[in-house]
Write a sequence for this structure.
């Protein structure tokens, strides 16, 4: 029982990392308003590298080991890809790129989308944590690096809509608590052995790969085309740094 309670506390702390990310994003915007988009874009390139390596090197191999059937794993990955695709097309999943390049979804829509997004992030962290603490930490790291530029863009949209900095911070923190709900949901399901956790890992891997390849990498290409001279290579270097961080995390997890 004590061990179970210890695991539960660790999982909640990992899921709450999103709240810390929200505060960091808010701090950067409030203090570096003229450089926010530049920083956010660079973080996007970094996050793409981290999500790719965590999805391919961490989640997929572990999912294969848990499921033992590559065909069933393939279905789980495909469902993860289609799930995020449908969320984007129905307007429930706003990528930060949408908020900084002329499109302005309603504040309520952003908030609801954020709650859903954070809940799914919490489920991803929960599924990984149930395999092992180190894998949970690696997945939390990938989620956090992706969340930071997204939270920064959301903060800008909220403030441009007339909300105060304090109210925006509170909204971001409130939505981030949904990560805990998602983590606890997976924890309760896995405690009852209702579902093979390998399927959740495959689903998460598909989501990570879609976000990295369909959202973040195309944006990186777009920004590289806008860059001139040596600055064009900075995007590749930052992307490579993200890959390196993910690879090192995988090596430490092993």
């Amino acid at each position: 029982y004590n061990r179970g309670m210890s695991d539960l506390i660790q999982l909640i702390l990992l899921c709450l990392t999103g709240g810390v990310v929200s505060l960091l994003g808010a701090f950067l915007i409030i203090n570096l308003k003229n450089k926010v988009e530049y920083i956010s874009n660079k973080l996007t390139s970094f996050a793409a590298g981290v999500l790719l390596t965590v999805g391919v090197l961490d989640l997929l191999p572990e999912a294969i080991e848990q499921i033992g059937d590559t065909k069933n794993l393939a279905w789980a990955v495909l469902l993860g890809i289609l799930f995020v695709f449908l969320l984007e097309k129905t307007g429930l999943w706003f990528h930060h790129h949408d908020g900084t390049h002329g499109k302005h979804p309603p504040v309520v829509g952003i908030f609801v989308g954020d709650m859903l997004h954070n809940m799914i992030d919490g489920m991803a962290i929960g599924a990984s944590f149930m395999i092992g603490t180190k894998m949970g930490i690696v997945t939390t790291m990938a989620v956090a690096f992706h969340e930071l530029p997204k939270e920064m863009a959301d903060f800008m949209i909220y403030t441009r809509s007339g909300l105060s900095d304090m109210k925006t911070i509170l909204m971001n923190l409130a939505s981030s608590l949904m990560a805990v709900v998602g983590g606890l949901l997976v924890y309760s399901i896995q405690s009852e052995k209702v579902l093979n956790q390998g399927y959740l890992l495959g689903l998460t891997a598909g989501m990570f790969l879609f976000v990295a390849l369909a959202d973040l990498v195309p944006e990186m290409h777009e920004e590289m085309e806008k860059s001139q001279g040596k600055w064009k290579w900075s995007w590749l270097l930052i992307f490579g740094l993200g890959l390196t961080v993910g690879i090192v995390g995988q090596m430490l997890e092993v």
Residues 96-103 have pLDDT under 50 and may be disordered. The chain has eleven helices and no strands.
